[in-house]
Write a structure and sequence with these properties.
The complex is a heterodimer. By secondary structure, chain A is mainly β. Chain A contains no helices and twelve strands. Chain B is globular. The chains are: A mainly beta, B mainly beta.
C-alpha cells in the first residue's frame, strides 16, 4: 500500500531563510506526487505536481520540489521565505494508473518569523 | 470563476441531529469529491462522483453518512444521526476529470462541531 510521511509537523524559519519541507513516500509503482498548501480557513490549493519527465518541478509562489526515486523523496523547497508563506503544507501521492485517489500526508505547518 | 462553494462554513449541532452539508462545484467540472479532515486521521476521501454518479464510496465511514449529487451543480453530504466523533472539517473538491492529471479544486470547507 502506498503511504506518505511528512517529517516535522511544525517547521519555523526566519523571513528570507531557506524553506525545506520533507516528504517521503512508499509506492510499489512509479508515483504521481503533489504538494498542496492550505491557508487558514481555506481549502487546499495545488502548489506543484510531478507526474513524469523532469524530476525538478517548479510551482507557484517560488516553490519547487525534486523527485528522487532512490531516496523515495519529494521535498519542497523555497530559497527565501516570505511571511505570506505561513500555512500548512500537504504532500500527496497517487497511482500512475491515473486514479483520483490521493494519499495525503499529515501536513507540516510552516511558521515564518520576522 | 467563483470556485467551489460550500455551505454552511460552520455548523454546530447536538448529537443525534441531522446535518446536511452542501457543495456547488466549479461550472463545467464533472468530478466531485468529499473529504474529511481531522487532527487524528488527516485528510480522507469519503466519496467520489463522476458525471453525477457515485463511483467510489469506500471512504464513507458508516451508514449514518450519505451523499447525493442530483445534478452537475449541486451535491450534499448528510449525516444522520450525528455523533461527536463526526466533528471535523469537511471539504468538497471538483475537477475536470477523474484522473490525477486533472487538478482538484477545493472549497473552503465546512467546520462541523457535534456536541
Amino acid at each position: 500500500a502506498q503511504s506518505v510521511t511528512q517529517l516535522g509537523s511544525h517547521v519555523s524559519v526566519s523571513e528570507g531563510a531557506l524553506v525545506l519541507l520533507r516528504c517521503n513516500y512508499s509506492s510499489s509503482v512509479p508515483p504521481y506526487l503533489f504538494w498542496y498548501v492550505q491557508y487558514p480557513n481555506q481549502g487546499l490549493q495545488l502548489l506543484l505536481k510531478y507526474t513524469t519527465g523532469a524530476t525538478l518541478v517548479k510551482g507557484i509562489n517560488g516553490f519547487e520540489a525534486e523527485f528522487k526515486k532512490s531516496e523515495t523523496s519529494f521535498h519542497l523547497t523555497k530559497p527565501s521565505a516570505h511571511m505570506s508563506d505561513a500555512a500548512e503544507y500537504f504532500c500527496a501521492v497517487s497511482e500512475t494508473s491515473g486514479t483520483y485517489k490521493y494519499i495525503f500526508g499529515t501536513g507540516t505547518r510552516l511558521k515564518v518569523l520576522a | 470563476d467563483a470556485g467551489v462553494i460550500q455551505s454552511p462554513r460552520h455548523e454546530v449541532t447536538e448529537m443525534g441531529q441531522e446535518v446536511t452539508l452542501r457543495c456547488k462545484p466549479i461550472s463545467g467540472h464533472n468530478s466531485l469529491f468529499w473529504y474529511r479532515q481531522t487532527m487524528m486521521r488527516g485528510l480522507e476521501l469519503l466519496i467520489y462522483f463522476n458525471n453525477n454518479v457515485p463511483i467510489d464510496d469506500s471512504g464513507m465511514p458508516e451508514d449514518r453518512f450519505s451523499a447525493k449529487m442530483p445534478n452537475a451543480s449541486f451535491s450534499t453530504l448528510k449525516i444522520q444521526p450525528s455523533e461527536p466523533r463526526d466533528s471535523a472539517v469537511y471539504f468538497c473538491a471538483s475537477s475536470l476529470g477523474g484522473g490525477v492529471t486533472y487538478e482538484q479544486y477545493f472549497g473552503p470547507g465546512t467546520r462541523l462541531t457535534v456536541t
